[in-house]
Structure formats: C-alpha cells, structure tokens
User: Fold this.
Amino acid sequence: MGELRAYAALAGAQARSVFSYRSSFLIELVGNVGATVFDVLTVLVLFRATDRIGGFTLPEALLMTGITSAGFALADFVVGNVDRLKTYVRAGTLDAVLVRPLAALPQLLLMDLPIRKLVRVVFGFGVLAVAIGLNDPDWTPARVSLIVLAPLSSAVFMGSIFVISASLAFWWVDSGELGSAFTYGGKDFASYPITVYGPAFRGLFAYALGFAFISYQPALALLGRADPLGLPSWAGFAAPFAAFAVAAIAAGVWRTGIRHYRSTGS
Assistant:
C-alpha cells in the first residue's frame, strides 16, 4: 500500500503541474488528436481512388485502422513517454530514479504524465466504434469477447514495443530513430490490410515481428472472412497470446537493460 500511495502522489503532482497551465494544456489536448485524425484521413483519401485496397472495402479497412488507432493511443497514453529514457540516461536523471525504493519503470511513466493524450484515446475508440457500426458484424459470444480483447491486446503489444525500443538507450543512447521505426512505423504498418505489402516486407513485419496480430487478424475474425494469405481462422483470436509473448520479451529486455546500466556519476 505504501508503494501505491507513493505512485499516486507522483501522479497527483504531475496532474497539478499540468493543470496549472490550463490554456497550454487545452491546446496540447486538442493538438494531440491530430496524428490519429490524419491516420483516418489517409485511409479515406486512398479509397477515393478505388473501392478496394488489398481486396478489402473501406469499412473493412477502417475496422483495422480503428483497432490499431485505439490500441496505439491507449499504449501511447500509458507508456509512450518511456521513450524519454534516452534523455534521462544522458542527463543522469535515471540515477535519482534508481536510488528510490520504488520500481523504476512506473516512476519513469509518472514523471511526465501524458494527460494531454486523453483525447487521442477517446478519438481512437470512437473510430473503432464507427467502423464496427459500418461493418455490422454477425455477433457471437466469441466475437463480442474479441472486440473487447483486440484493442487491449493491441495496446499491450504496442506498449511492449515502446518499452523494448526505449530500452535500447541502455546500450545506445541515440537509438531514438531506430525505436520510432518499430513503434510509430509499426502503427502505420498495422493500420492497413497487410495484403497491400510485398511478401518480404509482410513476412518480416507481419509475421516475424507479429504486427499482423495487432489488427489484421482480429478484423478478419470479426468480419468472418477467410485470410487471403492462408492463415487459419483461429489466428484472429491469437492477439492476446501475441501480446503476452511480446510483453514477456519487453520485461526481459527491460530487466537486462537496468542490470547493464552504469551510473553517470551525476
């Protein structure tokens, strides 16, 4: 209970500091939804030129975008600011975090509480709700469970990628651009049907790295469509298992990085 009170105190202090500059907070709150808006607009623009992309209609593709947007926005809100780790390592701020009798990762996440990203989360789930309405799936108990688990699994998956990419700073402090290729690049990749990508690119990102299970496979299961690429129907329900596997890898990388870290002496 003592640790929970300490984390609550950190979160409260961050919230008070954010709300003390209300005008700036409101501007950032609205501005942060822009990235997700552009993701949706990009899909709409592409479908102005054709009625199908990769064999999928606009409502079907929008369902994949909605699952990805909801999951990524939630992951970015909860753990996205862990990508500031490289700054903390370079400045020596991480040393102060490690000497406290609290777990390092929760402290880092609460050091810059991203309340300004809340609207992006709401918008992401709003896009998902619209996409569900447009597709009107044939609801079964399994699909009802999946529509709850899919965005949450996507959030765990992407949050784990955030942690893995940020942890590279323990070995390479200027690894930010490489990490962004897998976080923001992975989000962009998963926002479209993976049938639009070439075999080599698809094999690496969709299956070797698991991004097919963020939205593409769950969307197929919700729509009741067979996978054009040949995976069995149960693959659409594998999202929680893929998320758990990546989370386990992220935990291992984080622990290894913390053990590897040597103080800056500041």
